[in-house]
Design brief:
Number of strands: 0
Strand content: under 5%
Distance between the termini: 54 Å
Radius of gyration: 22 Å
Structural class: mainly alpha
Largest sheet: none
Order of helices and strands: HHHHHHHHHHHHHH
Oligomer: single chain
Shape: globular
């Protein structure tokens, strides 16, 4: 009790942060009311959509998925605003250089819509559920030490966690198509992350819009079956998009096991000896 009392002693006024969250909520209400109706996700089943160019389809998948998530952000931000006003989410600064924070309890961070880091996107979506899955499913399947020693074990833990998340959502086939796809997508991104230093040529900010579009396209591709739920409709959507997401992700995923580019470079014994001699 004393620990909790000390945590909230001298708590500053939450009204400023509360106001920021209310403004964010109003923004997401606006998107939900005026933008989302113009971007219905079920349009991916229409003949008109099937006849469109592949670039249009990719852009539409990105746009409708982001618009739909704004509806979720609406609820997340409204709940966070109420928690902030109650003072529960306050974090007391530990030093003089630190500022007051209201992020002890976070439901989501909408700014990660702009991120090209898939791990950040996953970690900060429905934050409490992600933490539960991490500690009670992912790390129960295998410890961190086991996964560091065995990449295969880490891959198994990743896929098992995504399947459990699908089961937690329900029994609709669309959930399983989405989460199995996201499991492979997450593994593929993890492989790219380990060899990101080999792609310094496209690390310049000028390439950011292209990278954002591509990363979000394949991330959002799995969201449509999640919304459609029905197996036949999900397969029809994939047929309209020439199965772009699954084909590209699975191709890269299995190719990564065959080509040296995706293998982590480990220093040889001779180079380690040379380094030791230089150190001495």
């Amino acid at each position: 009790q004393m620990c909790i009392r000390d945590r909230y002693m001298g708590i500053p006024s939450p009204w400023k942060r509360f106001g920021e969250l209310v403004l964010q909520t109003l923004f997401f209400i606006g998107v939900t009311l005026f933008v989302l109706p113009r971007l219905p996700y079920r349009h991916v089943l229409d003949k008109d959509f099937a006849e469109r160019s592949l670039f249009f389809k990719m852009a539409y998948i990105n746009a409708t998925s982001i618009a739909i998530r704004c509806r979720y952000y609406l609820g997340f931000k409204l709940a966070q605003a109420n928690i902030t006003l109650a003072g529960i989410s306050y974090v007391k600064p530990k030093g003089e250089e630190e500022k007051d924070s209201w992020e002890r309890i976070i439901s989501s961070k909408a700014r990660y819509e702009l991120s090209i880091n898939v791990r950040e996107k996953v970690d900060y979506w429905n934050r409490s559920v992600q933490l539960w899955l991490k500690h009670y499913v992912y790390l129960r399947f295998a410890t961190e030490e086991e996964m560091k020693k065995s990449a295969k074990r880490a891959t198994q833990a990743n896929h098992f966690t995504f399947i459990m998340s699908a089961l937690w959502h329900g029994l609709y086939p669309g959930y399983y198509l989405a989460f199995i796809y996201w499991g492979f997508f997450n593994e593929t991104c993890r492989k790219f992350f380990k060899i990101r230093h080999k792609f310094n040529a496209i690390s310049h900010p000028i390439f950011y819009p292209m990278k954002w579009f591509v990363v979000n396209l394949f991330y959002n591709y799995g969201a449509i079956p999640f919304f459609l739920l029905d197996l036949r409709e999900s397969l029809k959507y994939m047929q309209h998009t020439v199965f772009l997401g699954p084909l590209v992700i699975l191709f890269i995923y299995f190719l990564s096991h065959q080509i040296p580019l995706f293998r982590e470079e480990k220093p040889s014994r001779s180079s380690l000896k040379t380094t030791d001699l230089k150190a001495k």
